[in-house]
Every structure is written in C-alpha cells, then in structure tokens.
Amino acid sequence: MADSDTSQQRRLERRRLFKHTAAAAAGVGFAVSRASAEQAITAGATNGNINQSVAFWCFNAAGDKWSAEKTCQVAKQLGCRSVELIGPEHWDLLKKYGLVCALSPNGMPTAPFIKAFNNPRYHDQVVTLTKKAIDDSSEAGFPSVIAFTGYLYRDTDNPNLGSMSREEAADHCVEGLKRVVGHAEKKGVNVCLEHLNTRDNTHPMKGHPGYHGDNLDEVAEIIRRVDSPNLKLLFDIYHVQVMHGDIQRRLDENKDIIGHVHTAGCPGRGELDDTQEVQYAPIMHKLLDIGYVGYVGQEFIPTRDPLASLRQAVKTCDV
C-alpha cells in the first residue's frame, strides 16, 4: 500500500473512532451545551488527532480533591473524550457530559497491581472481578479494562515466604489471563495489561518495587503467548522511560498490541512541562505514525494548580 493510501486509511480510522464516541454519547440521550463546546475549543484540545482521557485518581487525590463531577466538567471543557479509572457508580455522570470511561478499573478491593494474574493464589478473585469489569464495560459501551501482572511474592501478605522466578510468574500470568480473554472477546472489550517501573521507591504511585511486569519485552511476550485480539498492552510512557527509555522504538516494536497509552512527566510523575525529560509532542506524532487510534490518558500527579497543569498537558499532546 502506498504511503498516501496508508495515511488516508489512518485518518479514516481515527474519524470513525471519534464518530463512534460521539454517537455513543448521543445514543444515551445526553447533550453538551453550545457554551461548553465553545469553551472546549478555546481552553484545550482543538486538533482532535489524539483521543485524550483524564485519569480520575490523579485529580481526586490532588490538592483540592476534584469530585467526579468536577473532573467530568474539566475534561469536557478541555476537549477530552474520557475520564478513566473511575468506578461504575460514576458512569451515568460521564454519560451526562458525553464522556466515556476509556479504561475501567478491575474492582480489586486492594491495590490492584499487587495481587493479580501472576499468582494462582489470587486467580479466582482477580478473574471473577475482571470478568465483572468486562461485563460492566460492555454494557456501558466502554472499550477497555485494566489488568496487572502482580508482585513476585508467593504471598504478598507474607513476603518472607519468598518470591517466584520470573519464568514461573509469567507462566501463571498466561494461565490466569487465558481464563478471562475468551469472555472479553465475547463481550467486545479489551483487557490492557500494564507495564510498571520498579526503580522509583520514593512514592507508592511513582514506582512499584516488587512488581513482576517491569520489563516491557516480558510483558509483551506474555500478551503474545496468550494470543488473543482482546488482550492488549497498556503502554505507560512514564514507566517505560524510567525502566528503558527509547520510547519511540518501543512504540514501533509493540504497535500491534498497544491498546491504551498513559502519560506523565519523568522523573517524578509530575506535569508534562519543560522540567522533565520526555518530549511528548514527538511521541504523540509517533503514535499517529504507527496508526494508533486508541486513547491517551493523562495520568500525572499534579505538583501545582491541577487545572493549569492538565490544560498544559492536553495542549502539549494535541498535535
């Protein structure tokens, strides 16, 4: 296929995705006021090439602790199409604002990245809750559910029992994920397995020492071993930068399995500004070049005014 034909096909795919998002919101009978639409144009994203999302937990935990409604209002004003990692109890609110939940939580009652698919001790619970999240997302018309490998401890409540080998943990991951992907295929929902960094030990949400899935190549291999079109990679740019760098090459290497993307400044998981080392505009252009048509979630931890920080991030990624 000629380069011009490929570019045209990608533009059409993005247009279809955005049209589908708008149609889904209209189908449930919710409308956005003209004033809100005009405000979105002037306050945030205007190009619309990158389908942007706001991670609720980052702003619910920051400073003035945004409510779900305020987060939806801001997301809409900035031209974002999603608020993600927000529970089903808030999904009617998302629909009120014409938004989707691009990435649904998996319902684990504790930190979901600790007890997960790499440990058969937790399989029954995590499989049950992931299937429930898949059902909820499918019913709401939302695209994806988050998943994690888990920590390497044989028993996370008693680390003295020792750790699994990476090979054993990977085998357990494959076994556990195969218990949910058939259900995901039937429901038309993606399960997105996230790579996390283990190097940063300064904050419980900036790094995850003990996490199994800290090597992007190993996480990608698990996904390919499961071999389901509905198991995807959650490519978190911040975590990949901390562990590996070479982001654009890694996007190329995994373009066939990427299902969701996260942002944050590095180091520190702060704003997408000129104090951090990742240049986000070229990375957004790279996502367009590889034909990525999914969502990019703003998942940084604000260190100053959250609204100004989010507006800056949205504009930075609006290439």
From TrEMBL:
Record gene name: hyi_1
Top-level lineage group: Bacteria
EC class name: isomerase
Domain Xylose isomerase-like TIM barrel intervals: 74-310
Keywords annotated in UniProt: Isomerase, Pyruvate
Alphabetized GO MF terms: hydroxypyruvate isomerase activity
Keyword Isomerase: yes
Identification of the protein by name: Hydroxypyruvate isomerase
EC number: 5.3.1.22
